[in-house]
Design brief:
By secondary structure, this protein is mainly alpha-helical. It has 2 domains: 58 residues; 40 residues, 30s Ribosomal Protein S14, Chain N (Irregular). The protein is built from 3 helices and 2 strands; from the N terminus they run ααββα. Strands 1-2 form a two-stranded antiparallel ribbon. α1 packs antiparallel against α2. The longest helix has 30 residues. The chain starts with a helix and ends in a 12-residue tail after the last helix. It is found in: Plastid, Chloroplast.
């Protein structure tokens, strides 16, 4: 189980990313449309003035049951060992067990 503070930090980042998503997208479009380099720098400065945690690259995918940040499967939103336990318990329809 991940620490609660890390999970809350990740939720805070998700909220910031959603809040600034359209602002960042519009600034990026402006940068691509402006031909002069000085204007691009000014717009880039505006983009940099937004909070760091509003950038989508800073988001980290976590297991929604345990909060584990590694070995996550996008299709299920679960970490590897939780996914394996659920498949062995027949809780995921359509998934087959594998043992080696």
């Amino acid at each position: 189980m991940a620490r609660k503070s890390l999970i809350q930090r990740e939720k805070k980042r998700q909220k910031l990313e959603q809040k600034y998503y359209w602002i960042r997208q519009s600034l990026k479009k402006e940068i691509s449309k402006v031909p002069s380099l000085r204007e691009q720098w000014k717009i880039h400065g505006k983009l940099q003035s937004s909070p760091r945690n509003s950038a989508p690259i800073r988001l980290h995918r976590r297991c929604f049951l345990t909060g584990r940040p590694r070995a996550n499967y996008r299709d299920f939103g679960l970490s590897g060992h939780i996914l394996r336990e659920m498949v062995h318990a027949c809780l995921l329809p359509g998934a087959t067990r594998s043992s080696w």
